[in-house]
User: What shape does this take?
Amino acid sequence: MHEFLLGELGSGPDRIDGRDPAGMVSAVVDPIGRFIDIHLAGGCAGRVGTAGLGRAVVEALADARSKAAVAAIVRARHGRQAPAAPPAAEQPAAVEQPPAVEQPPAGDDRRRVADAHRRLDRLERSRPARAEPVPDTVTGPSGLVRLRLDRGDVTEVWIDPAALPASGADRLTGELRSVLAGTARR
Assistant: This one.
């Protein structure tokens, strides 16, 4: 299977496709997992309702992002070149490195363990307390679509059922693209 994936991936595809289990929604991400595009099957909202369609969007995005993660693992395992890093604004902040550890005399394992615990305690006390991130809600330009993001991942999609029949599938797809593209830049 790895050979198949490597043959398919080469140094990495530019676009990775994911689908929900029913095949109603197809999402496309880049090799890092950032949103590129989304496609809806004709009449899918009428078949499963807006709640079902929202779940299908989340499942398709999750499928595409998991494929991107597997592709990265396979490339790394086989020494293939990884995709380019995201722009500097999107890279996580540098992690503070602990101070260098001096080596106590060999054979004094208890003292080394105690010293390591003291250093770790000092490092933990020196870091500012981090609050749990609050899920973010993003609304589309016309209010037809709302997304809940948790640490950058789309966890829920709400589609306004009252606006759906009047808006049509093209408008819904456009609104989804607009909102999801905005989340890729966060």
User: Anything to note?
Assistant: The longest helix spans residues 44-77. Residues 2-82+132-184 form a domain with the Ybab; Chain: A; fold (CATH 3.30.1310.10).
